[in-house]
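Standup, Tuesday
Yesterday: got the pipeline producing structure tokens again.
Today: sanity-check two examples.
Blockers: none.

Example 1:
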Amino acid sequence: MASPAIVAIAYNRPEPLKRLLSSIEAAYYPEGVSPALVVSIDNSGSDEVANAAREFTYTHGEKVIIERKERMGLKNHVLACGDLTEEYGSIIVLEDDLFVAPCFYEYACKALESAEKDDRIGSVSLYSHLFNVHVREGFIPVDDGFDNWYLQIASSWGQAYTRKQWESFRSWYADNKDRDLAGINVPANISGWSEKSWLKYYITYLIETGKYTIYPRVGLTTNFGDVGTHACRSDSDLQVPVQCSESPRCRFSTIDESRAVYDAFFEPLGIMDGENPVLGSYGKAGADTETGTDKEALIVDLYGYKPIAQMIDAAKAEGAQKVYVLTPKLLPYETVRSYGRQMRPVASNISYGVKGNDIHLYDVSKSAAAPVKEPEALEFLYEYRGISVKRMMKIIRYRILEKFGRS
């Protein structure tokens, strides 16, 4: 594979851009590799960002500055930058509020090489999530011994594409850019994003074509969340650990051998109870499975965010004779078994058969009284460890003052 170009996307934040470019310059690059650096600047009516790009010294290859003549907006700007795959073959795309790890480039090269072996991989992420963005609760992928995991969500916080991956998306986008993206398999949080979002289209593309993004176990980028067009305040919510070694961790699994494959809701596609699948074969949860003469379907909803009623109806419409739901929601169906919420990640409570009354496996074909609700405080304490009452009150005070615009 040819050396992917590095594409930095900028608009009106000169200082964050300088920080990103400095981290790119300080990174390690394989011997004999001289990647081009392209700084693409959307038109903001100011020369500050362009001047920062011009003054920056890049010593690892050619530096190209593209100054857009007209204001494009984030969606069209990202799409135009993605189209640079036609010129460079493969690219690494970095928005200006990011920071890259020293070994980000070598990781991206090896991840792209791995992704080329499987058409089910639709993009490469350099970022690694620590919380479920839909519900803003903690997320940790299952550690299956590999340095990667898979998620049916594309990344906007450090991503890479081959020409083939990008062209496949562009072809889908041409046919779908004007339609409503809402659907039971597209999280409402995503389909409800502004029309200015390019990412919601890429995520829907992954969902509808059965593709995934390959993610690193430990990130190669982190996000400063600087104030900008789509961020009214700076915060550290999106900061994650990054690899600090000269050589990245690149023992990649395939999708088929991975035990860490997640749908667009951050729900595992395989769920085990001890040595046995909850239903069907490992890696098939969420899809129909054959059990005897019955066709069974399992809906995994550990975060309680999926549109369960619609998904049950869809499973029955597709011919499922039995539908099961694994969720913390209190539903009026027979409880097959229940699990606690103690181990991390949350799926481990099912994998190791932790008993409790927090997560329930329901047989939808049988009506019954809903389980008794556990105190919500227990779920909060599971999610947010080590918060004292005093510290909690300070957080509440800060949020209230922030909301009403007082200091």
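Example 2:
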Amino acid sequence: MPELNVFNDSSDKKITKGVLVTAVFRGDDKDASEVSLDELERLLETAGGKCVARMTQIKSAPDPGTYIGSGKIKELAELCKNNDATLVVFDTELSPSQIRNIENEVNDGDSDIFVMDRNMLILDIFALHAKTGEGKLQVELALLKYTTPRLTGKGLQLSRQGGGIGTRGPGESKLESDRRHIKRRMDALEDELELLEKNRTVQRKQRDKSGLYKIAISGYTNAGKSTFLNYMTGAGILAENKLFATLDPTTRKFELPSGNEILLTDTVGFIRNLPHQLIKAFRSTLEEVMYSDAVMVMIDASEPECHNQLAVTEGLLEELGASGKPILYVYNKCDVETDLMPKVKQDAGENNVFFISSVTGEGIDGLVARIEELVNDGKTDETFLFPHNDQSMASVLYKNAVIADTEYLAEGVRFRATVDAKTKGMLAKYIVK
């Protein structure tokens, strides 16, 4: 399982001190850059590091060599020295040559400062939190695809194996041998993931045969998706106040007040500028959203940036091809006292919008009632009788309905089933009046 980890050396448990760097270019929103830096700081903390300083450069355009320019690089080197920082994280995607140039500039004879970009940090967190076999394979593939072109940088030689950010990796035995071995490893990972994806497809088909209504819980990272699933179903999955605490999808049954059962699936959280390598590697996992009957978008109502986070989520749902499904907008964490709540409620609208707390249960009854409406929308209980010489049509019923009872009679096979309007129309001549 490869990792980048340059953070905590497991031998002394010291927290890596990091300097965060961003740049504001012509036409950029400076306030938005500060918000993005705040998120980068949370990412750093999630990975096990600590922000000791932040730097913002204002330029007309990115410097091709060092991104922020030679003058600012000297300030950065001094900032690292004054704060005993051993890590620099840029709030952007850096090219391999930029990483190499920046590391050469900020390191003198005695220092050993590691330079990474935002994508590397997110990948490192995914490597830290991946628990299942499939999750680990997905992260390893994404890491190899992203880091292989960047192996020329001092920090990314990856011979410095340790227990923290930037050294959570395969190390010398896998990455420093040569690039052909890496290519073979990536091919092997893709073959393994393809097999797992086929198995996941079989599992989806089995769930489809059950006829149960499927809702995917999506949303920005740390919106409370896992806490909600635990509250509803007692799933017992990890729910922490950390970014990307959940990477592997978890599906649980939930019984509605009517007695109908549905499937709720917790999915990996989104974040702005999610690395393309992760979207591709986790596609089979993210497809849980695509194959659902409805999507529940979880939003952290206590987060000042909740509306921007919602926009990111909606953009990714559209990219995944899931934006045309029924969507429930669920503002979570309403038990957290904040002055933002009145404005959040004012701006949220009214169509399929719910305010809940996954800790206290506030507002969940109204959400469950709406889910019940979605599940029963257009469905009716009908009795069908298929003659013995026309049993092939019964396959349509098995595929599209929830069968409650089957009875074999002299004139044919009788089914009692819950069907939608489309299936009812297709099999209208078999309905027993």
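Quick observation on example 2: Residues 210-376 form a domain with the Rossmann fold fold (CATH 3.40.50.300). Residues 153-162, 170-175 have pLDDT under 50 and may be disordered.
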